[in-house]
Input
Amino acid sequence: MRSFILLILCIGIISCSSQKELTTNTNDLTLSSVEASAITGNLPDYQASLQSVKGKGRAIVSEPGHTDRVTVLFSSNRRRSLVTVRNSIGVEGGQLLTDGDTLLIYNKIDKFARKVPVRGGDINRINQLASLNILDLLNYSVSSKNVTSVHENNVNYKLLLASGTAVYVDKKSYLIKEVEEPENSRLPYSKIKYDAYGSIQGFKLPRRISIFGAEKNSKVSLQVTGLVLNPDLDSLTINIPDDIPVYYQ
Output
């Protein structure tokens, strides 16, 4: 029987998180003698047991001189991820669908749609969140085969991947705290930070996720408020009316 699990943080925690930037101690990192497999083997990896999610959250989109607050509804499996965005008064503004390579953006307010590549595409603001597969975002997995070097300090392990991505892992909890992309990745985001992990039916998943834009002056902060694990999902598609033009980048 499917269950709906509310992930509600107390007002005090939410208040503190809104006023304090999450930080990851990345100073004084030195080459580690610990094998990559000893670290990745302890990371939560639910690729086999968690195949779909459905939920909602509150997102704050911040950029110089402007801040938006929206509600996001999401459904995701290992192949596709669908996000619906509602503004502060509940009006549905659009839908976004990604397969990992491309992002389809349907703007219901301005009545147009466009399809852009995730790498090198013109993707900003809430689209940065939607460009990621939400299921993969909630459970970021790392294979030891992709790790080229391991560094550490007294707080974190740093796993450097063959792609140039750096993954920071808390040494006590073995939970991922930060994922940092190289400048040449051509992705629409430069960094992802994770916080407030909770145990949900045996799955350890983050409740707060911050995504920093590739230009490093914008951020999307997602607060997960509701989540269904392994739901039966309909086909993840966007039904665009025939009279709405679709532009391709």
Q: What stands out?
A: The longest helix spans residues 11-19. The radius of gyration is 18 Å. Confidence is low (pLDDT under 50) at residues 1-23. Residues 32 and 45 are 23 Å apart (CA to CA).
